[in-house]
């Protein structure tokens, strides 16, 4: 699936399943690739959003150079918190010398040791797999990748089924605990119906409502950051056009004074254009990657910050429930969402109109120096146009992707707040309704709630038998 | 299978939960039934070559 074959997902494709004859996949494993939370390759489908919520295990890929960023650390914390086993890969290990790599591995291990629930687990000796994915594709291969592939294959062989059960139990436990919070809050808030007790319920409701207000603030933060990134992108594009036109001019100077000095006009145009196309597209591609990374880092930073803010707010709310209602709520942190990716391509073909076709034919047939001068002049104009059009295309593409990524991030932020608070809001509404009921009806519903709470306790007890335990890191 | 505590727990959570909870539990049951482990690749995945083979 490419942007070229299906521009802007016109065919409405939600997902693509690729069947590969690979031994590692033969025994029942599904690899779900994601570009990361801040990616401008994000595309908005619910199925993709569920990637974090529905995973069992994870392979978290970091780069050795530069080291782990704050937003990556946050994503790692969320991924490792939701997966039963997490393999951590440190790619681009070949970019560092031995000392630098040892430092990067040590740093990553320290980051991992700070992930809650991982420091004291079996096999948590800091299993990090340094490798070069690029080298792994060469005939010589990469020893780091070979170690990872062997360990991953062994893990699937020995632990796939047991981890699948552990993961199923952990997912069921998260749901059951949220439901238990909801029932407990409903019952308690319904019981606290008069005087100081009723005031405390109201105060808790007000604190919960404040979180909903902060959801709107969070959306404003996303839009402000997006605006800042758009401004920086446009500014950078203007600078890139000037710089790349200068570079192209210098390249043409070198060619005209060297390799193509005495070439006939037709060769000057053909070879000169070929060289220009390659160098301009390479340069624009590098510029686009650099800007894409800036945008992704900006969006990932704001996403990580807002996820952290919500977590802190839920911690405060948990404290409020204990303080005001004498309730111990679990309030599991919403999982967050990841999305799938799309592709982008450049077009380097000459867009020649009829006038240029005729003028070109005449220019290329002109004799000696005149023809060469006209050919070089034509190439200089073509270089300026090529730089302008390609940077323009890349800028327009990034603008579109930034707008799309912002839209997705806004939805993610809103949904995360909803996920974090909706059951509590529903509980308070149910309690308010219950307080309005007649004593007989309230008693009947209270009995039903007590039975429901008992049923959830039994479910959690069953899940304890399964060993629904905190996540662990890959054995290393 | 009926005595499997995990199967009983999943069935009970589905009965007690919302539609969205039931969807999640249904996906979990599907994976258990087909013994299919779902492994997420996250982080810098987009910048690694796509054609890596095993």
Question: How would you describe this structure in keywords?
Answer:
heterodimer, A: 476 residues, mainly alpha, four-stranded parallel beta sheet, 11 helices, 68% helix, B: 54 residues, alpha+beta, 2 helices, 13% strand, flat
Please give a quick description of this structure.
The complex is a heterodimer of chains A (476) and B (54). Chain A contains eleven helices and five strands. Chain A is mainly alpha-helical and 476 residues long.
Structure in words:
- The complex is a heterodimer of chains A (476) and B (54).
- In chain A, helix 7 runs antiparallel to helix 8.
- Chain A has one domain.
- Chain A has 476 residues and is mainly alpha-helical.
- In chain A, helix 4 links the parallel strand 3 and strand 4.
- With 54 residues, chain B is α+β, with helices and mostly antiparallel strands.
- Chain B has one domain.
- Chain B starts with a helix and ends in an 11-residue tail after the last strand.
- The C terminus of chain B is likely disordered.
- Strand 2 of chain A pairs parallel with strand 1 of chain B, so a sheet runs across the interface.
Helix content of chain B: 40-55%
Task: Indicate how many domains the architecture of chain A comprises.
Answer: 1
Biggest chain pair contact, residues each?
A-B, 67 and 37 residues
Overall structural domain count of chain B: 1
Q: Main β-sheet of chain B: number of strands, strand sense, barrel status?
A: none
Helix and strand string of chain A, N-terminal first?
A: HEHEHEHEHHHHHHHE
What's the overall average pLDDT of chain A, rounded? 80
Please identify the oligomeric state.
heterodimer
- Provide the structure class of chain A: mainly alpha
Enumerate the spans of chain A where pLDDT stays under 50 for 5 or more consecutive residues.
Answer: 42-49, 119-126, 337-352, 468-473
């Amino acid at each position: 699936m490419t942007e070229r074959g299906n521009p802007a997902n016109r065919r409405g494709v939600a997902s693509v399943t690729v069947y590969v004859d690979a031994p590692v996949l033969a025994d029942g494993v599904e690899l779900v690739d994601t570009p990361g939370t801040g990616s401008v390759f994000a595309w908005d489908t619910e199925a993709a959003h569920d990637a974090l919520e529905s995973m069992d295990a994870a392979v978290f890929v970091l780069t050795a150079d530069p080291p782990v960023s704050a937003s990556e650390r946050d994503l790692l914390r969320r991924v490792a918190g939701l997966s039963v086993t997490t393999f951590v890969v440190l790619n681009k290990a070949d970019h560092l010398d031995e000392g630098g790599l040892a430092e990067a591995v040590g740093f990553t291990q320290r980051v991992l040791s700070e992930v809650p629930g991982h420091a004291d687990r079996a096999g948590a000796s800091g299993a990090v797999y340094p490798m070069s994915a690029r080298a792994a594709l060469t005939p010589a291969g990469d020893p780091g990748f070979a170690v990872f592939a062997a360990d991953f294959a062994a893990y699937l062989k020995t632990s796939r089924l047991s981890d699948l059960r552990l993961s199923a139990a952990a997912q069921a436990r998260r749901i059951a605990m949220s439901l238990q919070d909801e029932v407990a809050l409903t019952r308690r808030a319904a019981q606290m119906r008069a005087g100081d007790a009723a005031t405390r319920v109201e105060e808790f409701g007000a604190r919960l409502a404040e979180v909903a207000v902060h959801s709107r603030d969070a959306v404003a933060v996303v839009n402000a950051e997006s605006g800042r990134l758009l401004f920086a992108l446009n500014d950078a594009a203007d600078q890139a056009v000037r710089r790349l036109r200068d570079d192209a001019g210098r390249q043409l100077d070198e060619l005209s004074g060297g390799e193509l000095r005495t070439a006939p006009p037709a060769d000057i145009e053909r070879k000169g254009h070929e060289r220009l196309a390659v160098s301009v597209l390479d340069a624009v591609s590098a510029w686009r990657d650099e800007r894409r990374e800036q945008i992704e880092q900006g969006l990932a930073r704001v996403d990580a910050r807002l996820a952290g803010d919500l977590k802190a707010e839920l911690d405060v709310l948990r404290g409020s429930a204990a303080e005001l209602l004498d309730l111990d709520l679990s309030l599991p942190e919403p999982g967050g969402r990841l999305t799938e990716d799309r592709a982008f391509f450049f077009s380097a073909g000459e867009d020649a109109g009829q006038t240029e076709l005729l003028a070109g034919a005449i220019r290329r047939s002109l004799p000696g120096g005149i023809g060469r001068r006209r050919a070089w002049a034509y190439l200089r104009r073509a270089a300026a146009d090529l730089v302008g059009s390609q940077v323009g295309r890349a800028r327009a593409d990034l603008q579109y992707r930034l707008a799309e990524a912002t839209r997705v991030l806004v939805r993610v932020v809103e949904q995360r707040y909803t996920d974090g608070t909706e059951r509590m809001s529903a509980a308070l509404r149910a309690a308010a309704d219950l307080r309005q009921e007649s004593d007989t009806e309230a008693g009947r519903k209270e009995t039903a709630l007590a039975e429901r709470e008992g049923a959830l306790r039994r479910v959690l007890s069953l899940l304890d038998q399964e060993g629904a335990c905190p996540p662990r890191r890959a054995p290393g | 299978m009926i005595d499997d505590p995990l199967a009983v727990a999943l069935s009970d959570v589905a009965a007690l939960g919302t539609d969205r909870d039931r969807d999640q539990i249904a996906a979990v049951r599907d994976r258990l039934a087909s013994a299919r482990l779902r492994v997420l690749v996250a982080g810098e995945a987009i910048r690694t070559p796509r054609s890596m083979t095993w």
